[in-house]
Predict the structure.
Amino acid sequence: MMNINKIFNFKDKIVLITGSSGQLGTALSNLYLELGAKVYGIDIKENKLKHKNFFFFKKNINQETVQKKIIKKIFKIEKKIDILINNASISIYNNLEKRKSRELDKIYEINLKTIINLTKQFFIFYKKYNSKSANIINLGSIYGFLSPDFKIYSKGERFSSEIYGATKAGVIQLTKYFAVYFSKYNIRVNCISPGGIRNRKKQSIKFKNTYSKRVPMRRMAEEKDLLTSFLYLSSDYSNYVTGQNIVIDGGLSLK
């Protein structure tokens, strides 16, 4: 019989989170720490989180040599990584007609190529250390399968770009590919695609209100709205779930 008290017990679990200094990355780090896990974070931005079980690498994650060094170090210390969360991503907000090739390269580099290379390095050491099981969770977006409604953006607003959506579509497809590729190694791979997450510093009140009117639940997401899905996918009680894309958008994509 299922012991409800053990479902979200992550004691002795090793978690690696990319983009750990951002809004969602910080929330995820705190969540797993509260539930007993040891968390390793990677971000180019400084991290202010202080906890005895949080270990931070201030590194540019898009460099494969850096990825290999970090993965190797964690496996050498812990002998495993139970949960890999590919959370790091970036976007760009200028108009398509002003798009530069180097901007396309940068978004692709972080949002897609980094996931491929980091997952590759993880898998190499997973086999080397004879690990028995693991979970990978990728961060997608509703804009990986929807086009944005440009009417909700005012001049100067941070709208979803074509390259951001294209890379997030790629993340969703990578999730399906990796789920099949890693299945015989007992590695499950899933994706979480949120709608708009409320950001107190980077979104105008007008945008938040306009966006919320399009959502059946009449509000933007908060970080906490996503957390249980991460816990579910990374727990031992979802061990028959792989290759899935869980959409958390308050119903926006249903309209």
Remarks:
- The chain has a mean pLDDT of 92.
- Residues 40 and 55 are 5 Å apart (CA to CA).
- The longest strand covers residues 187-194.
- The two ends are 40 Å apart (CA to CA).
